[in-house]
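Hi,

Apologies if this is the wrong queue. I'm a grad student, and the batch job for Zf-HC2 domain-containing protein from Streptomyces olivaceus produced an output file that my downstream script rejects. I'm not sure whether the problem is my script or the file. Here is the sequence I used:
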Amino acid sequence: MIGAYARGGTGTGTGTGTGTDLAADEVWAVEAHLEACPVCRERLATAVGTEAPAVAALVEDVWAGLEPRLARDVPTPPRRRWSAGLSGWLTPAMVPWLVMAVGVTLTALLLDVAGRGFGDVSLVLLFAPVLPVGGVAAAWSRGLDPAYELTAAAPRAGLELVLRRTTSVLAVVVPVLLLGGWATGVTAAQWLLPCLAFTSTTLALGGLVGVPRAAAALAVLWAAVIVVPSVALGRTAVVLHSAGLPVWALVLALGTGVVIARPGAYSVLRNPR
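Support response: The file is valid. Your script probably expects a header line. Output copied below for reference.
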């Protein structure tokens, strides 16, 4: 079969079986086997020299032209270790969203400190639960990441990559929120649990409708139900008081459970994502 495959390459240059007794499925089987078998690749090299001298001469001519150029080429410098490791946690598509989240936090902090007539409502507290959601959506978005298809097809894609990038978003946003809360007197207990609950719920719903859509829907819902009424009435919503923390803990547990129960939902390419 290797001899017939080598002779077939003489006529077509593609190994499609033309001019040989090999059927198309046999040619595909031989090529698949050659990819994993070094012994048969050596046999093919020998067969080409004897069965297809024209092909052997062509290969030698091509190699004779390439070898001097390859010897002169400067090797590509190795990637820095920190850069190679960072690519497993971040994507350039996340940077604008992270900058936006930091900018919104600083703006809310300035408005809180300046006291622009929002009563007892802290804008840092209102925005804190949903600020990481935009970065999480950008971390796994087909429309924002130009390398989305390549990333989604990588061996480590899926839930592991989503969780890595979610962690990187939280690692940037949470310290800024801690600083804003300290400056305005808002304790982390009031917003950290809702923040994690919103993030887990975004990932849980993202397994059904896509992470960007889930993030957008939850952000709009939060703005309509919590942010607008709180600013209009001049008082903090009940869900952001300490009495609402058990509810947020339950939401966090449910969202985390759904994510763990459906890990395969984040490794399938679908149009909405």
